[in-house]
Amino acid sequence: MSPVREVNRVYVCNCFGVTEAQVKKHAADGACTPRQIASACKAGTDCGSCVRRIQALLGRGACPRRDLVDQGEPAVALAPEAELPEAA
Which of 15, 40, 69, 79 fits as disulfide partner to 26, beta carbons 3.0 to 4.6 Å? Predict the structure, then answer.
């Protein structure tokens, strides 16, 4: 017999063979937007037909930073600390 294979693969991005499970893992690792998913695995960067599906998988509340924006926190406060050059 052959080794156990993943039988229930649900492809989100057919262009790059990205599965729903992979998108969910990237979201769990901190990707909050389709653009961040694209940076992680290229999904959504070719034909673009999967972008709406990625948005649906991410959903509302999937990103802790988005929750803060919904609570009225300014978006700037959510950005990581930037290193600014010292003024001369």
Answer: 40
